[in-house]
UniProtKB/TrEMBL annotation:
Gene Ontology terms: cellular component: plasma membrane
Keywords: ATP-binding, Cell membrane, Disulfide bond, Glycoprotein, Kinase, Lectin, Membrane, Nucleotide-binding, Phosphoprotein, Receptor, Serine/threonine-protein kinase, Signal, Transferase, Transmembrane, Transmembrane helix
Designated name of the protein: Receptor-like serine/threonine-protein kinase
Catalysed reactions, as listed in the record: L-threonyl-[protein] + ATP = O-phospho-L-threonyl-[protein] + ADP + H(+); L-seryl-[protein] + ATP = O-phospho-L-seryl-[protein] + ADP + H(+)
SMART domains per the UniProt record, alphabetical: B_lectin, PAN_AP, S_TKc
Length: 823
């Protein structure tokens, strides 16, 4: 080996001073060093406030295992961009986690950043922010996000160094080592179900048709759901996981955890020189992948053959043709043994237990542990050990095979034959009676119609009830097969129509104890069905709202799907009743907090700003992004409901109207709504448009910022209402005096002044001067925007106060923001 051409950096630099021919070599060397320096600077694993991920910028985990950034799908004319995580050495860069599956970006303008409140937000040129961590929000703005070598993307609170949110909580279609599938926060109102959902196609990460997770009714089972059909693929037998697939399980260490607050399935890799993971494909198949070094290979896993469990310890037969001891079960009475597997579900009867045990040859017996015959226990011991306990107790146990002879030969069971004989003697007269009744009914001319109508009504009722339960599950995070997919997909549902008896049962016959409140439309009650809670709005016969308003709300809101719109779950139109059933909002309406001296203390700055932004997003969806362009016409704080996490949801669409694409405004001779929130052109002339809702939104913003109600506000000095008072303070550069005293000590007054400025723009008298909801959403996300000065609000008193300052526009406040073009 020759070292003759080796030169140090200092030698090259010196040589360049005396030998110009070396200058080009030095320039090349310096360029190479600067390139390496840039790589070392940009290759980071952490996103800090003020930084962003956009274009080709990415995060790379410490050991360069995973990479996070934006990726593109589709061709040039149909391209979409998503934020995802992929193996850095994967040549195809197939994402194992996608943040915005339902919110693709139409171009390369996507930007991931940490917002002013410490939360992760994706923005693009449309300036419609998408929260990456909407359910688990940060409590402070001192956060940072890090991509770990496990593939987990975590948002960390810098002060407490605690994890606020992590991508492992919301997996996509890939199960990585350390990920968990199951149920968390059991026994609380924040129950979380973690499961996989397939891609729509191999190249489109939108949610597909298959889901993989633990079965709610038997949380020892792993199942794959396809709409309403599911298939068991594995179960925990108390000692190990057994799978339908005969894969090489030596590479995995499967675990099952069952505690008071969580039940989940997870796995780890046994080998240190490789990484293995599972993917739920768009066709519902489960593929296993392994990466050794930089080589990725798919592991083929054939379905287990129809053999006994003794010769395939990690396999089970999903639908065995015939087990060694047969597929029939014998009923015996004896002592209840300690079960191998325990299932607490209230929805499982003894027939369900038999079906579950029958489809698994490893199951040797089952029983129900409750007096009402619900709940299952399963045995995997030898049948002989169960038979030994015959006659030692009063429990009823079913064992695989024919154990009748054994039971009859036991002297302690000598009375069992007499019991069966008495049962047969008692049942025969009942059967004969039923036959005579059926023959009598069949002779009637209308009997066929009655039976058919009864069957049709029963089928329709059952179908509506089933659909309603699916809606409930989707709204409250249930794990039934349909809701798991519906929670990821926006699509229309047939609205369930429930019977009046079902509604009265769920509300305890409209008990006053279940009453949540009452408005001009009528009372609202809390209903409960199979553990699910919902709200029942019963339209009063004295209400000004009639059948048209009722039909209007049913037709409109049932077609809308947005996180800031209340979800309609069903209705009832029986016995001249007009009843609407909504998802249950634990914190009721915004006004119940905002104007209550005790509760309003719970609305700090962050929550108030979040509520304003949520209402704005809901209105933007109604005005621009829903398939039906909708004007609400009755927007007020009592129609803004708050869920468990204080997220706002717009409700009460009885007064709403649909606009066509080319319609700008409408007119009505019947002005409906609430004074104090109605725009002047609507209240006086019956003219309504999207700007009518903007006006109402501006009033709500003023109420949220000030903590005062517009309709009951009074000022001895100047103004008739809150709008006029806010205007006077703004003109005198004293806008800060309008802010709720509870927020006076906050360090982020500029955000509240921004909201005040936007609110005054919204309540301007002329509709054409008001900003659109798109402009408002943009301004709310840009604290340093330069907004135009507002003109006088509608319905404000003593407007000469500003005229005395020789100005029509008041713009003397210290805070200024970006220009909005009003429409």
């Amino acid at each position: 080996m020759s070292f003759a051409k080796t030169e140090t950096f200092s030698e090259m630099a010196m040589a360049s001073l005396f030998f110009p021919r070396n200058l080009g070599k030095l320039h090349s060397f310096l360029f190479f060093c600067s390139f390496l320096l840039c790589l070392s600077v940009t290759a980071t694993d952490t996103l800090l406030p003020g930084q962003d991920i956009s274009g080709n910028k990415t995060l790379i985990s410490p050991n360069q295992v995973f990479e996070l950034g934006f990726f593109k799908t589709g061709g040039s004319s149909s391209a979409n961009y998503y934020l995802g995580i992929w193996f850095r050495d994967d040549p195809y860069q197939k994402s194992i986690w996608v943040a915005n599956r339902e919110y693709p970006i139409p171009d390369s303008s996507g930007v991931l950043a940490i917002r002013y409140d410490g939360n992760l937000v994706i923005n693009d040129r449309r300036l419609i922010p998408v929260l990456v961590n909407p359910v688990m929000l940060a409590n402070s703005n001192g956060t940072h996000a890090t991509l770990l070598d496990s593939g987990n993307f975590v948002l960390v609170d810098g002060e407490s160094n605690s994890v606020v949110w992590e991508s492992f909580f919301y997996p996509s279609d890939t199960l990585l080592p350390g990920m968990r599938l199951g149920w968390f926060n059991l026994g609380t109102d924040k129950l979380r179900d973690q499961f996989l959902v397939s891609w729509q196609t191999p190249s489109v990460p939108s949610t597909g048709s298959f889901a993989l997770g633990l079965n709610k009714n038997n949380r020892t089972e792993l199942r794959v759901w396809h709409t309403e059909v599911s298939r068991e693929i594995g179960y925990w037998d108390g000692r190990r996981f057994k799978f339908l697939y005969n894969s090489s399980l030596d590479d995995y260490n499967f675990s099952y955890v069952n505690s008071i607050d969580e039940i989940y399935f997870t796995f780890a890799n046994r080998r240190n020189d490789s990484i293995s993971w599972f993917v739920l494909t768009p066709l519902g198949e489960i593929q296993a992948f392994t990466m050794i070094g930089k080589e990725i290979s798919m592991v083929y896993s054939p379905i287990c053959e129809n053999i006994s469990s003794s010769s395939a310890t990690n396999c089970f037969i999903e639908q065995p043709l015939s087990c060694g001891n047969g597929n029939n079960f014998s009923k015996i009475e004896g002592a209840m043994l300690n079960p191998t597997v325990f299932n607490e579900s209230d929805h499982l009867g003894i027939s369900d237990c038999e079906m579950m045990c029958r489809t698994n040859c490893s199951c040797t017996g089952f029983a129900s542990y409750r007096d009402d015959g619900t709940g299952c226990v399963f045995y995997y011991e030898d049948i002989s050990s169960i038979v030994d306990h015959i006659g030692r107790g009063n429990a009823t146990i079913f064992i695989r095979g024919n154990a009748t002879k054994t039971a009859d030969q036991d002297p302690r069971r000598s009375g069992s034959g007499k019991k069966r004989l008495l049962w047969v003697i008692g049942i025969i007269p009942v059967v004969i009676l039923l036959i005579f009744v059926a023959m009598f009914i069949s002779r009637g001319k209308c009997s066929t119609w009655l039976v058919a109508a009864w069957k049709e009504n029963r089928t329709s009722t059952n179908r509506s009830l089933e659909l309603f339960l699916q809606q409930l599950g989707s709204a409250r995070g249930s794990s039934n097969s349909t809701s798991r997919l519906d929670s990821f997909r926006k699509r229309d549902h047939e609205l369930p129509i429930l019977s009046f008896s079902c509604v009265t049962t769920s509300t305890n016959n409209f008990s006053p104890a279940n009453k949540l409140g009452e408005g001009g439309f009528g009372p609202v009650y809390k209903g409960t069905l199979l553990g699910h809670e919902f709200a029942v709005k019963r339209l009063s016969r004295k209400s000004g709202q009639g059948i048209e308003e009722f039909k209007n709300e049913v037709q409109l809101i049932s077609k809308l799907q947005h996180r800031n719109l209340v979800k309609l779950l069903g209705c009832c139109i029986e016995r001249e009743e007009k009843i609407l059933i909504y998802e249950y909002m634990a914190n009721k309406s915004l006004d119940s907090f905002l104007f209550d001296p005790n509760k309003k203390q719970l609305l700090d700055l962050r929550k108030r700003v979040s509520i304003i932004e949520g209402i704005a997003q809901g209105l933007l969806y109604l005005h621009k992004y829903s398939r039906l362009r909708i004007i609400h016409r009755d927007l007020k704080t009592s129609n803004i409901l708050l869920d468990d996490d204080m997220n706002p949801k717009i409700s009460d669409f009885g007064m709403a109207r649909i606009f066509g694409e080319n319609e700008v405004r409408g007119r009505t001779n019947k002005v409906v709504g609430t004074y104090g929130y109605m725009s002047p052109e609507y209240a006086v002339h019956g003219l309504f448009s999207t700007m009518s809702d903007v006006f109402s939104f501006g009033v709500i913003m003023l109420e949220i910022v000030s903590g005062r109600r517009n309709t009951t506000f009074s000022s001895l000095d100047h103004s008739l209402n809150l709008l006029g008072y806010a205007w006077e303070l703004w003109c005198s550069s004293c806008g800060i005096e309008l802010i709720d005293p509870l927020l006076a000590d906050t360090s982020s007054v500029s955000k509240l002044l921004l909201c005040l400025h936007i609110a005054l723009l919204c309540v301007q008298e002329r509709p054409e001067n008001r900003p659109s909801m798109s402009d408002i959403v943009t301004a709310l996300s840009n604290e340093h925007a330069d907004l135009p000065p507002p003109k006088k609000p509608a319905f404000s008193a003593h407007i000469d106060f500003c005229n005395s300052l020789h100005q029509q526009d008041c713009s003397t406040n210290d805070v200024s923001y970006s220009v909005l073009e009003a429409r």
